[in-house]
Amino acid sequence: MKHADIISKLSRRQKANLLTGKDFWSTLPIENAGIPSAYLADGPHGIRKQAAASDHLGLNASIPATCFPTAAGMANSWNPQLGEEMGRALGEEAAAQNVNVLLGPGTNIKRNPLCGRNFEYFSEDPYLAGKMAASYIKGIQSNGISACIKHFALNSQENRRMVIDSVADERTIREICLTAFEIAVKEGHTRTLMSSYNKVNGEYANENPHLMQDILRGEWGYDGVVVTDWGGCNDRVKGLECGNELEMPACVYGADDIYKAMEEGTLAENLVDENLDRLIDLILTTDAAVKTVPETFDVNAHHNIARRCAEEAMVLLKNDENVLPLYTDSRVCFIGSFAGNPRFQGAGSSIVNPTMTETFLDEVRKYNFHFTGYAEGFKRYGGSDRKLAEKAVTLAASSDIIIFFAGLDELSEAEGIDRKSMKLPDNQLSLFAELKKLGKKIVTVLFCGSPVEMDIIEQSDAIVHAYLAGQAAPTALLNILSGRTCPSGKLAESYPYRYEDCSTSHLFHADDFISEYRESIYIGYRYYDTAGINVRYPFGYGLSYTTFEYRGLRCDENGAVFTIKNTGKHKGAETAQLYIRKESDKIFRPAKELKGFIKIFLEPGEEKEVFIPFDSYSFRVYNSLADEWQTESGDYDILIGASSRDIRLNDTVYIQGNDTTFYENAEALKKYFDADVKNISREEFESLLGRKVVIPEYNYVNRKNTRIEIGLNNTVTELKYSRSLIGRVFSGGINTAHKVLWKTGKRTTANTLEMGMVHQPMRALAKFGGMSQNQLDGMLLVFNGNLMKGLKKFLSKQK
Fold first, then answer.
1. Number of separate helices (H) and strands (E) present in the chain
2. Angstrom distance (rounded) from CA 506 to CA 689
3. Are 109 and 180 in contact (CB under 8 A)?
4. Average pLDDT of the segment spanning 143-150
5. What string of H, E and C letters represents the secondary structure of 330-356?
6. Which residues contact 602 (CB under 8 A, 6 or more apart)?
7. Of 165, 169, 229, 281, which one is the catalytic site residue?
8. What confidence score (pLDDT) does residue 701 get?
9. Is 60:50 a contact under the CB 8 Å cutoff?
10. pLDDT digits (tens, 9 = 90+) for 314-361
11. Are strands 199-200 and 165-167 parallel, antiparallel or unpaired?
């Protein structure tokens, strides 16, 4: 151990106390042992260090920091070098604010487009997500502080995220859900990792020895710190035994459990010391780093980085008759609420208080447009308003080109809440229909962090997807519209025509207690391209103001070499994507898988030869039967494309690997070989799993008239089935308040209530409320009908 001398001076009580927080964001200092306090702060795309009272919901304002594009946007850049530059800026600002651990990036795979937190995640593809995550980490940690990848693992929904059980087969876990984390650990060398709230195959993530010990510590050799998500610890001792060093926020009874277990001899003290050694090392090394960093940073320089990131994050989806870039003599109007009040970030724990703000209405006057004016057009949060619509139509009638600003409001995409549908609001669609009747050119700009159904918006002459592009989004977008910047973003996720086309549409929220990953490896383009499902916009797609020619592909065992030429009139950047394909009757495979990419910047007429190497991820598949990574021998098609459905070059290489068996009964998996995953029965899923799915004893459907024992992991919603009238009234009051707030337009408060209360289990209420063990036990007694006994225990001074 590195810090045995420090640990030897600590009492068991001090050891236990160190393994939980001092408060909401800080670790506990022990001054006489030379252990300072470390500060952890949210920061996937900007630092959120709160100056006032701390909370996890984004209610209290934080110290100003640069708001960069969210991960969903940055992944569209396909530019790890830019991601690393952004990471350096994030780390510099974190160190300037005396932050030891920056809680990001989010590295989960986008399994379903309705996940409310998708704006914080990179991609539906694990290779792209992993490369971008590793780039962030390298940049952040170059300042001496620690990044913290999250949420490990299989965290694919926000609804009931603290109690849901993600059930998946081993191959899906390894190839789809964990590969991005593996790349982040092995290439990014993250020093901190955050466990997710959910269960994985029946065990909470931070208590799951297969995830935490066999894979993370064992196979990947991770020697950093694991911290729980806030309030996400179920059994503190089990978590510690799996290598979960730090529980956050402060939890008195969690430390008590560790101390008691050591005293009783049920928890080995040397295991506690090993966990402490890693935690103390993180604290001391990052503390030394933040002490040497200036407490200020160049605000303007970081704003300029944010602008460059935003420019590469935006994707040109459509450009009929080259309506873009705009001509300077065209009369242009802005229609839509997002033009007047730009939306550039998500909501929840990642919300940033920007150092600078730009508005489209101020910035447009710096460009050579003939700007005719702005009309709000529609209510941002839904509902019809004829006056707003009529004013917009009148303004548009006097203009040549309409820039229609559409998208999702801040309350539609937020931590703790999943979206209800993929549709854009009706009032935006109806206004667009009215504008379309004018016969004017319409350029639609979308502001959202995840896919939407385009509907009538597809009739636009041009579409720019701005995603959530950070504080410099207005000038970045105007640079693209005006042609000062040539768009180069490419989608990091597929855009289906309809939600029902998604491989997981029938599975998402299908059960209150388990989330069955019956789709296996068929996520995003892996499903669409294999099953032959048409999509609106494919993975990797994005237009430019220039054109690129691919030629001369040569492949060998090391990688692929080919030439790209800019054949257009604008300087621009192209992202070439390398996919592999293998026909097999031994193991089911997607039609293609991304295994490499490169972004290259070219002047008009310029050409360059580029090389995309093969690596350890290129040809591997996970053999669940053998419980190891293997490579299937045979010919592999090497596909070079501008998107997953725009393959420009192809070649074949032979790879020598394993000749082995992958399944005991491949016949039982016929639908998987056919990518017919929308029709997988539970029995067929169990054939893939190799075990039975454990079904909860009760669910919301069958317990309509039953009363249940309320335990640590029952949520506030479930109190409606409590044996106690107090529990039922409490649950009913919270749910009624949520509905009233929503219907009366107080949707921010309603969302906060849903995130902070409705789906919280009892143990999380206790942790966020700073309760002692006695208070938690007392609360449970009250909710189970033992009012007087519960109140007595709750009010007891005994901890």
1. 25, 26
2. 19
3. yes
4. 97
5. CEEEEECHHHHCCCCCCECCCCCCECC
6. 548, 564, 565, 566, 571, 572, 573, 574, 608
7. 229
8. 46
9. yes
10. 999 999 999 999 977 889 999 999 999 999 988 777 788 999 999 999
11. parallel
Predicted confidence (pLDDT) per residue in 432-441, tens digit: 999 999 999 9
- Residue 28 gets which letter from DSSP? P
- How far apart, in whole angstroms, are the C-alpha atoms of residue 222 and residue 206? 15
- Give Dmax over CA atoms of the chain in angstroms: 82
Answer yes or no: are the C-beta atoms of 575 and 640 closer than 8 Å.
no
- Contact indicator for 18, 254 with CB cutoff of 8 Å: no
* pLDDT, tens digit (0-9, with 9 covering 90-100), for 651-680: 999 999 988 899 988 999 999 999 999 999
Using CA atoms, how far apart are residues 490 and 467, in angstroms rounded to an integer?
12
Residue 254 · residue 244 · CB < 8 Å:
no
Q: Which residues contact 372 (CB under 8 A, 6 or more apart)?
A: 331, 332, 333, 395, 398, 399
CB proximity list for 674: less than 8 A, separation 6 or greater: none
Are 290 and 95 contacting, i.e. CB atoms less than 8 angstroms apart?
A: yes
List, for residues 91-106, the tens digit of each pLDDT value: 999 999 999 999 999 9
Q: Which two tokens stand for residue 683?
A: 């029995």
User: How many CA atoms lie within 13 Å of 494's alpha carbon, on the beta-carbon side?
Assistant: 26
Q: What is the pLDDT of residues 15-65, one digit of tens each?
A: 999 999 999 999 999 999 999 999 999 988 999 997 755 555 545 678 999
Q: Could you confirm whether 426 is annotated as catalytic? A: no
Give residue for tokens 């191959």. Answer: 171
Rounded to the nearest angstrom, the gap between the alpha carbon of residue 55 and the centroid of all alpha carbons in its chain is: 20
pTM reported for the whole predicted model: 0.95
DSSP string, 208-224: -HIIIIIIIIIIS---S
Q: How many CB atoms lie within 10 A of CB 325?
A: 19
